[in-house]
Amino acid sequence: MRLLVTGLKGQVVSALMERAADDPALTVLTLGRPELDLAAPGDLSVAFRRLEPDAVVSAAAYTAVDAAETEQDLAFRINRDGAGAVAAAAAALGVPVVHLSTDYVFDGTKATPYVETDPVGPTSVYGRSKQMGEEAVAAAAPDHAILRTAWVYAAEGKNFLRTMLRLAATRPEIAVVADQQGTPTYAPDIADAVVGVTRNLLAEPKNPALRGVFHMSGAGETTWAGFAEAIFRESAARGGPSAAVRPITTADYPTPARRPANSRLDCSRLRGMHGITMPTWTDALARCMDRLQQQGTLTS
């Protein structure tokens, strides 16, 4: 299976490339700037056709949540127009597109985990740009699967886990928001799910149940403070940096963009339609910390 993945260095892109290195039946072809600029995508069909993919994974996005509040035009050009152009190019080739989206399409006021049929209501520019990106993908390419995920992290790149470990190296205590609920999702687990969904789409090209919107996040739930505490427990057990966590409220840590208080996603549809069960976030965290230790990048 030949996957054309948008982006060159993102956490999920890197995980997909690593997965392909261990799977002779999988080839990952990446396309990014300058050849692919989602801020000014134009017609991508020629570039896509040259690579002859079996499917397209739309992974690249504008993800600077707070900066989007003042860079609205750029966020919409990339997350709405760019995503739509990628989907249109996939449709022109006659191949499915798997598009990565986010929990930020919801307002976070629901008391229970969100299902795919819940009304969207983003409260930030980033969330609105991703919602409109979903709509653009669905309009441009009927053969699509939109995968909403949340709280993505990896052993590499810029993410919450690496920030916590960096801060713990110099601080005895770190204040972390404790009134936002969600589920950390490990990038390699996202990569596995993306490959599984794509293979299902290719195996059953006329099955509508495999298409549409699906939720795809780690199993279980926690808060940002709970995630930080777990990170430090796992780190300390491996001789890495650790710090005490001081729980605070969202009001104590104001940000330009409003975050959903509830980012929990119900992944039952992904399991029922695609047969994919996401690992628990605690098990995934342990695997990530093992990787950091093995790489020698987890230091006290």
Properties at a glance:
Rossmann fold, 12 strands, six-stranded parallel sheet, 9 helices, alpha/beta, EC 1.1.1.133, 300 residues, single chain
Approximate strand percentage = 15-25%
Helicity range of the residues? 25-40%
Low-confidence stretches: none
Instruction: Report the CATH topology name.
Output: Rossmann fold
Q: Return the CATH architecture.
A: 3-Layer(aba) Sandwich
Structural class label: alpha/beta
Q: What's the pLDDT, averaged over the residues?
A: 96
Order of helices and strands: EHEHEHEHEEHEEEHEEHEHH
The CATH H-level homologous superfamily: NAD(P)-binding Rossmann-like Domain
Q: Give the radius of gyration.
A: 19 Å
Strand order of the biggest β-sheet: 2-1-3-4-5-10
The CATH class name reads Alpha Beta
**How many helices in DSSP terms?**
9
The general outline is: globular
Q: How many discrete structural domains? A: 1
- The total beta strand count reads 12
Major β-sheet annotation: 6 strands, parallel
Distance between the termini: 42 Å
Description:
The chain has 300 residues and is of the alpha/beta class. The chain has one domain: Rossmann fold (3-Layer(aba) Sandwich), CATH 3.40.50. 39% of the residues lie in helices and 16% in strands. The chain has helices spanning 11-21, 45-51, 72-93, 125-140, 160-168, 187-203, 224-237, 268-274, 281-295, and strands at 2-6, 27-31, 55-58, 97-102, 144-149, 152-153, 173-177, 181-182, 185-186, 212-215, 222-223, 244-248. A 6-stranded parallel β-sheet has the order 2-1-3-4-5-10, with helices on both faces. Strands 6-9 form a two-stranded parallel sheet. A two-stranded parallel ribbon has the order 7-12. Helix 1 crosses helix 6, helix 5 crosses helix 7 and helix 7 (224-237) packs across helix 9 (281-295). The radius of gyration is 19 Å and the shape is globular.
